[in-house]
């Protein structure tokens, strides 16, 4: 793997970048100052690459496309762009250094249908000023500390916690606490793709989301560690209509809580384990909790190594995935339809996760690829106990200048052993897609509120 230069981050050595320990040091004032000079405010290098295939960051995309209504279909701001080139099984070897192993595996398995269309790279990631300001503060005040739930951030609030990461754990917390808005509402469908090539709807849902960590009128002193809340109500298919799940995520994962409402039992039950490789109820057991949006959950089972930074092809600015009006136009029989997924060349942080001695997990080793600008985890490969590449997680982010953010929408997993897949947050047939909301009342994310919504 060819690792590119980390950039002119003052004092940041590769030796520190390769450290995987839980403890970490905050950035120096000199390092933090680079967030106002050589680095963009969330941590990515401002400069483009040497050959010009990655442009410089000049502020991101912050002007909404004319005619866009909040909650409606986000138009493609780059609809006029044409692919620079396409990668298939026939020419994959020429681009192997910039493709994750899972992408190459998909090309080998489905040589006649899976491809990567590469478009001009556009550095659209952006955030409000208060997020930039808090990220700058976090750089010198946040650190990783050990807890019963593994390494957790301390001293971070309202921005990327570690814009100049020095350990793998710091980079993963940047993923978990990345900016994507404070409160939003989504409607979507989820599909399983069987090894035989059949699409099966396993989920039709409407979700309320909130990140108290990003409340602009909050503060580090008032923050209680509860950083993400979600309420999901199933509207279909018929056998699952009325089911619901509510979760409240804490920085310390052992304090996180989740409840499920099952219509057959007509009561709310607290979920005993919403972590790690436990199968999720909403996916009909097809993905694990730690595969939600690429990675979600606690970090205590693995050692996290920050391998370095690399130029990689990843899904990015893929507003074209929202253009089709039918789910089946985006979701193919074996994988996402390549016609509607935009790939770009970006610098990514590469993080390797290796299972700690004495721990158990279905995927003892993983490699994750994290966009340097937005901290979206765009792709991840996971190996099983036999050393086989078993699964890949993918995220399809879109540009949302109205927030502004580069935010994940559709995500899922490809199972390289069975040949099946799970694709979630497919919004193409929905009138409401990703709607920015005013702050919800805290009571929305409680078991009682969920039971009242889910009863049938």
Automatic annotation (TrEMBL):
InterPro entries registered for this protein in UniProt: DUF1329 (IPR010752)
Protein name, entry field: DUF1329 domain-containing protein
Keyword hit for Secreted: no
Positions of region (Disordered): 41-76
First and last residue of the signal peptide: 1-22
Keywords: Signal
Keyword Cell cycle in annotation: no
